[in-house]
Amino acid sequence: MKRFIVFFLLSLSLHSCAQKNEQNPYGLTIINDYRNYKKAYQKNPNDELVEIKKAIPSIVLDIRYATKNNFMQEVMYKQARAFARKPVVEQLKKIQAILNKQGYGLKIFDAYRPYAITLAFYEKASDKNFVANPAKGSKHNRGCAVDLTIIDLRTGKDVPMPTPYDSFAPEASPHYEKLPAAVIKNRDFLIATMQANGFRVIYNEWWHFDFNGWQNYELMDIPFEQL
User: Fold this and answer.
1) How many whole angstroms separate alpha carbon 105 and alpha carbon 86?
2) Is 36 exposed, middle or buried (0-12, 13-18, 19+ CB in 10 A)?
3) Where are the domains of the chain?
4) 148 vs 86: CA distance, rounded Å
């Protein structure tokens, strides 16, 4: 009987490991169980993934991956929602207030991204330089990256930027200079505002900002529907 119990527990353990490796072939530590995630943010409130629109009602959402209007040309999210860690949202709220005083506002394209979506992007993307390597995971998977632009509050329209969102063109680089002066001014204004308030733009996407301190947060694979 004891041998049977030991064999059963060993089989269960191996099955669990197999499931884990199948779900995460790179051996990364990823929180994919809602109960574990809930325990984490109950212990440390900063770990909570806060819904951005609920925390900042005036913010505009344009969640492209909930539509086919994206570089994948397919619906990747079942819900058009945006989440980020609590300190990230607190900084976005400050930025929104700063922009509003100058006649502008934030528009969010994407924020927290479940790890399973990062896997799908990498498998299907034609240019791997513009998608996160799932062997490392994405700052989006940690709830510590946001893709965004700014809108003119008078018109409600996007302020002109170098490229559309998710462009793979060289003009998407935040340092690209062969652009109209007004466009460079808009891009640099956005970047300066974000970087003065706890974020850092990445080298090849003017719209992508990583939160300073992202290293303190785990990779996540909790779907929007559970949040």
Assistant:
1) 20
2) exposed
3) 31-226
4) 18
Stated as kind and residue range, the H or E segment containing 28 is none
Chain centre to alpha carbon of residue 168: 18
**By the 8 A CB rule, do 96 and 105 touch?**
yes
Name the DSSP letter for residue 132.
Answer: -
Pick the CATH number of 31-226 from 2.40.10.10, 3.30.1380.10, 3.40.50.10810, 3.40.50.80: 3.30.1380.10
Please report, in tens digits, the pLDDT of each residue of the chain (227 residues total). 444 343 333 344 433 333 343 457 788 999 999 999 999 999 999 999 999 999 999 999 999 999 999 988 999 999 999 999 999 999 999 999 999 999 999 999 999 999 999 988 888 776 776 778 888 899 999 999 999 999 999 999 999 999 999 998 999 999 999 999 999 999 999 999 999 999 999 999 999 999 999 999 999 999 999 99
Question: What 3-state DSSP class applies to 63?
Answer: coil
pTM equals 0.87
